[in-house]
Amino acid sequence: MKKGCRLTDSVRVRFGIRDFKATMDGLVLNGKPYGKKLYGTNRHQDYAFIGNALPNSLHWRDVKKFKDCGMTIFRNAHYPQDPAFMDACDELGMFVIVTTPGWQFWNRKNPDFERRVYDDIEKMVRRDRSRPSLFMWEPILNETHFPGDFTTNAVNVVKRETLPPNNLCACDSQSQGSGVVDVQYGLRDWHPSRTAVILSPSTQRLWMRRVRRSATIRSRYISRWTAMRTLLERIRRSRVGARPLC
Questions:
Q1: Which of 6, 97, 99, 155 has a 20 to 30 A CA-CA distance from 42?
Q2: Rounded Cα distance, 20 and 25, in Å
Q3: What is the total count of domains within the chain?
Q4: What is the spatial distance between Cα 169 and Cα 159, in angstroms, rounded to a whole number?
Q5: Cβ-count burial of 5 within 10 angstroms (0-12 exposed, 13-18 middle, 19+ buried)?
Q6: Is residue 204 included in any domain, yes or no?
Q7: Against a cut of 0.85, is the pTM above it?
Q8: Co-location of 240 and 145 in the same domain
Q9: What is the pLDDT of residues 21-74, one digit of tens each?
Q10: Strand 2-3 relative to strand 6-7: parallel, antiparallel, unpaired?
Q11: DSSP H or E stretch at residue 77
Q12: In 135-162, which positions are buried (b, 16+ CB within 10 angstroms) versus exposed (e)?
């Protein structure tokens, strides 16, 4: 924005050009078969002792470590995450499922709540729709009992704000109104998230044993990271041999 010849305000937008589609033969990326499975994880934007106050370097470090472990996709849990994290995913070639902020709460008494959720979805899409790392949107609220028409309305906001193939929407197959989304996450009874990485029964048991063992640690961030390191070590060993997690 200029006032006369003087620049008074500006916005810089990073963008990428890519094309993908889901076919009966698998994922097609930029006109070529992707040819690999998508291995991934949910990612919470916090860290031991500092909570949500991560510096940009830690966002980049997370993405690099997961990529080095053979993962290719993140599901943001459960809100749009820091632009530094999205920048790292763009630069390192990761896919991201971007999620609407909200978890296990619906205000049935105040209609302003629902209107504000739609406003959040609109802002989320406008912020990240130009990123090459964007894979899908999850416009519903996580693990929430919402009205039957909410999913349809949320999907419509995404479709209004961006064009194919950037407007694919996903949600859990057990969510209310899941029939209107483009992709449904498969059923998994071992963990409520049920997304991306499909684990063998032995790995599931290992995960749950480690989570229970870590539950006595006072910091929930340490507990979560300990469990995640166990999962990553198991995945890495299965893919590249028994080497220590770096």
A1: 155
A2: 13
A3: 2
A4: 9
A5: exposed
A6: yes
A7: no
A8: no
A9: 877 788 888 889 988 888 899 999 888 888 888 999 999 999 999 999 899 999
A10: antiparallel
A11: strand 73-77
A12: bbbbbbbbebebeeebbebbbebbbebb
Name residue 195's amino acid.
T
Residue 22: domain span? 15-198
DSSP state string for 1-58: -EETTEE------------EEEETTEEEETTEE--S---EEEEES-BTTTBT---HHH
Give residue 63's region: left, alpha or beta (phi > 0; psi -120 to 50).
Answer: alpha
Structure tokens given for 221 = 């961030």
DSSP code of 109?
S
Rounded to the nearest 5°, which phi and psi values hold at 215?
Answer: -65, -20
- Whether 130 and 36 share a structural domain: yes
Q: What are all long-range contacts of 101-107, with beta carbons under 8 Å and residues at least 24 apart?
A: 102/78, 102/141, 102/142, 102/144, 103/78, 103/141, 103/142, 103/143, 103/144, 104/141, 104/142, 104/143, 104/144, 105/141, 105/144, 106/141, 106/144, 106/145, 106/146, 106/147
> CA angle, corner 51, sides to 46 and 54, nearest 5?
65
Phi-psi region of 106 (alpha: psi -120 to 50; beta: other; left: phi over 0): beta
